[in-house]
Write a structure and sequence with these properties.
The chain has 258 residues and is mostly helical. Among the domains are: 114 residues, Four Helix Bundle (Hemerythrin (Met), subunit A) (Up-down Bundle), CATH 1.20.120; 57 residues, Orthogonal Bundle (Arc Repressor Mutant, subunit A). The N and C termini lie far apart (39 Å).
Length: 258
């Protein structure tokens, strides 16, 4: 692994630790309010196409999250890793992200994942987000990154961010660095289905878990797993499981998990 990749991995490990701790923070709501302020500043920079300002606001956003842990040695180590990456990180963004709005939207996904409170989701989302720069650099230089195939990255992204509104074309471009048709062919070859079909399956499997364990209404569960239209959720659930969500819940409320 090259030095840039090792530093990215170090930073993502430190930040993932901090993000997991954030779930139990006594002033968690206040931290997320500050993160939203940082996110709004990022959006303004992205719309202007100002890479230097975007870079500064990005560091401020991530520092806000790490500082919330109130662990001085963690913050010191994180600051040291960021200083070492600073110049290279800015150059990677200028070279490999012609659209800062795409990078801004990746931060939107990240903060939503941090808010999910699931330690596994939080940790995976943080690594995926912070290591994308060196992954993209390696792919562009014709090297195969150790992080796995483009399809593996997309499958992880869809599994982590299934509750968000996702544009598969944008995921192809900014996560896999492929055209939508290339991603579809490779995804189908590996998993036997298209990316959107995979996303729908992830959403429905998660909905089934929530129907068994949650007391939320069916429509709310549909929204929690990424459906904006309740009738679409009910339709897809019935097609996939041959039963409506209401019926499935009544028959499986006390069943053991699969």
């Amino acid at each position: 692994m090259d030095p840039y990749a090792e530093l990215c991995r170090l930073r993502s490990t430190l930040e993932a630790f901090a993000a997991v701790r954030l779930a139990g923070h006594p002033r968690r709501e206040g931290v997320f309010q500050r993160l939203q302020v940082c996110l709004a500043a990022l959006e303004k920079c992205a719309k202007r196409g100002d890479y230097a300002a975007f870079h500064r606001e990005d560091i401020a956003l991530h520092r806000t999250m790490v500082e919330s842990c109130e662990v001085p040695t963690l913050l010191e180590s994180w600051e040291a890793s960021v200083r070492s990456l600073d110049e290279d990180l800015l150059q990677v963004r200028k070279t490999y992200w012609p659209s800062l709005m795409a990078l801004y939207r990746e931060h939107v996904y990240l903060i939503r994942a941090w808010g999910a409170g699931d330690p596994v989701v939080v940790e995976q989302a943080t690594h995926l987000h912070l290591e994308v720069g060196w992954y993209r650099k390696a792919v562009s230089e014709g090297r195969r990154p150790v992080a796995g195939s483009e399809v593996d990255r997309v499958a992880s992204f869809l599994s982590i961010h299934h509750a968000s509104e996702i544009d598969i074309s944008e995921v192809a471009q900014n996560v896999a660095f492929l055209s939508p048709s290339q991603l579809t062919r490779r995804f189908h070859a590996q998993f036997g289905m298209a990316p959107y079909a995979w996303l729908r399956q992830v959403r429905l499997d998660r909905a089934r878990q929530l129907l068994r364990t949650s007391h939320d209404k069916v429509g709310e569960i549909g929204r929690q797993v990424g459906y904006r239209n309740v009738s679409h959720f009910v339709r897809d659930f019935r097609e996939h499981f041959a039963v409506t969500p209401h019926r499935w819940r009544s028959e499986n409320r006390h069943a053991e998990p699969d």
